Amino acid sequence: MTDVLLRWKNDPGKVCLLIEGARQIGKTYIIDEFARSNYDYYAHLDFAINPEYAAIFDGSLETKDVLNKLSGYFPAFRAEKGRSMIFLDEIQRCPDARAALKPLAIDGTVDVVASGSLLGLNYGNRFQLPVGYEHKVSMKSMDFEEFLWAFGISEQYIAEIRDCIRMRIPLEESVLKRMEHFFTQYMLTGGMPKAILTLFATNSLGAVRDVQQDILNGYRGDVMQYAPVPIKTKVAKCFDSIPAQLSRRSKKFRFTDVENRKNVGVREYEDALEWLFDAGIISFCRNMTQPAQPLMFNIRDGAFKVYMNDTGLLMCMLGQGPAMGILNEDRSVNEGAAAENIVGEMLSKNGYPLLYYEKKGKMEIDFILDPVNTLTAVEVKSGSGKISPSMETLKKSVGGIGRWIMFENSNIFVDAAGTEHYPIFCAAFIDSMYEVLDVKMFPPI
Q: Is the peptide bond before 294 cis (omega within 30 degrees of 0)?
């Protein structure tokens, strides 16, 4: 995220930057550190801690009027181009501050970053988005590579792992064991900064789970506070049903399991699930009618899986038994719920839309990707088996798929049929599996 902030700061044509994401993923810390390191004059307006800052945006939203009222709260602040930044934290609590992004962007004297965890969920119909005057970036919890950095693993060490992935050659056994150890910790801890800091401080799974439970309770509190009254109960029930949904062999979201009701479908729960998605808590993995390009044109409405955006929180929701199974290097517990969720999480954090292919009674492919125009079938094997009947069936029945990838409990190798096998943690480095081409729009003059 620091790289994103630096690119934004150095863009001469920039507008206001809006960073959205779930609660407690570290948005405030990263933006605050960036501002203090890169600007001479800085004002941090946290509308959650200091709701009185909303008065700055009462009445006129002209930049000169906003800056004049801002000086009453931050007398040392100066508005100088390239040297001054305003951070509007938890901006969803002050819709008028969101509206002020347009005049602030047009004026351009002060750089403005805003952040929010429930953007758009409680503005109602009275608020008009400043389209064209804000650049929105989604932020998620720390990924596995960032987790390794936090533990002091060097970029050079990771680069050597990436080289093995790129060339499809096995890792040294000591490297494989070390990465598997860190990956187990990551699955249980997740990417929430407070959970990781607690792991550092205590080395206690129990202490980490206490932090995770607090975060989950915070999510449930947000549902009760911000979700529209007609869907509050449905949002809470959908959220609490996720561990059971992922613990079945077929992880397709079943609406009948949410409240143990019959004859219910997507219409009853669509708004509730979209609320959880907009809050940054879950991701959808959508079903495809066929694994063909363009992928987004082949999505089947009403059929999908739901993954937690942070697998550590899922592990807390699953309970202590599955966590102990993971510690004992058994990722097949609960029908591989954690293994499939974390691969989905890592693919999503690498920017891939989550899609799967199912042909009822015959096959189910966990993920279908289309990186650099190379249609790819991806399977996750949480047990010890290295054969996927679904993948073998798909190979015989569908053309056009260029690569076949399995994430499993193994080293890196390519089998006789051309299927690529990788340890599950390698999903975090899937960008190293493809060569990204720099396509020029126009020939040189």
A: yes
pLDDT, one tens digit per residue, over 333-387 is: 777 899 999 999 999 999 999 999 998 767 899 999 998 888 999 999 987 666 7
Q: Is the pTM of this model over 0.85?
A: yes
Distance (Å, whole) CA 101 – CA 61: 9
Cα torsion 200, 203, 208, 211: sign: negative
CB atoms within 10 A of CB 286: 18
* pLDDT single digits (tens) 50-83: 999 999 999 999 999 999 999 999 999 999 999 9
- Residue 206, phi then psi, degrees to nearest 5: -60, -45
Specify the pairing of strand 84-89 against strand 41-46: parallel
- Three-state SS for 402? coil
Question: Looking up tokens 């509050």, which residue turns up?
Answer: 232
Q: Where are the alpha helices (DSSP H) in 39-117?
A: 63-73, 95-99, 101-107
Q: Which CATH superfamily, name and number, covers 2-138?
A: P-loop containing nucleotide triphosphate hydrolases (3.40.50.300)
Distances in Å between the Cα of 114 and the Cα atoms of 53, 64, 119, 382 are 14, 19, 11, 40
Question: For the range 381-388, what are the long-range contacts, defined as Cβ-Cβ under 8 Å and sequence gap of 24 or more?
Answer: 381/336, 381/406, 381/407, 381/408, 381/409, 382/331, 382/332, 382/335, 382/336, 382/338, 382/339, 382/340, 382/408, 382/409, 382/424, 383/331, 383/332, 383/336, 383/409, 384/409, 386/410, 386/415, 386/421
Domain with CATH 3.40.50.300 in the chain: 2-138
Q: How many CA atoms lie within 13 A of 405 on its CB side?
A: 26
Contact criterion met (CB below 8 Å) for 141 and 190: yes
Q: Return the structure tokens found at 324.
A: 């102990």
